Amino acid sequence: MTATSRFAWFTLLACLAIPALADNNDYVYIRSNVNQPWGQGTNESAMDTVFGTDNWSLLFYETVPGNSLFSSSTKFIFMEGGDSSYAAFESYMQINGDAAYTWLRNGGRMLIMAAPNDPLSGANLYLPDNIVLHSDAYYASAASSAYAIDVSNPIFSSPSPTAYVFSGDFYSHGYYTGDNVVSMMKSNLNQIVLGRDVIGAGIMVFGGQTTDNFHLPQPAAHNLLENIIYYTAATNLN
Q1: Which helix (H) or strand (E) holds 104?
Q2: What is the mean pLDDT of residues 34-44?
């Protein structure tokens, strides 16, 4: 099976009602144009596998206004907020947080992966629905492992096989708090490093992970990222 057909095939098998891949602007990966996080292309690789090489758009915080990104034509957004992307991600969400919240309530699907990487400064960033991203100074929140909270969640089994426990150097830098956070993974520091929040007709999934080249075991760790993307884009919220 080709990467281009994989998303449509899994969608058919799962009988999930999501939009057809008619326009690559429906599915977006956005990061800073400064650099790929940690110089890695693992996120792009996962987007290729899930949606197909030519069926998604790469955008940059520095060049895309919020009213263009959070429009009714955009169905899924993967927001990278780690390493070299954190400063631009923080500014973008501070400016466009209300627009993101409205877009989610109207049925948007958003995945945030944010592992701030400034060893001297912590981070506290409010996201839609008062979900708060934290990262402690001096890598105090950097986790060496993380584990599944609910092993029945499909991100741990489909479309690709994965695992329930992961390690890394570091596995994550960020963690999340908020009244509406549903925990999906916790770190060895007992902090939520992957969670979700259903907001109106949409869903936001948020993680504090670094890029998966730092994670073990492989290929389970990369498969997990692919599964998280697929779950965020396709899970039935009814």
Answers
A1: helix 86-105
A2: 96
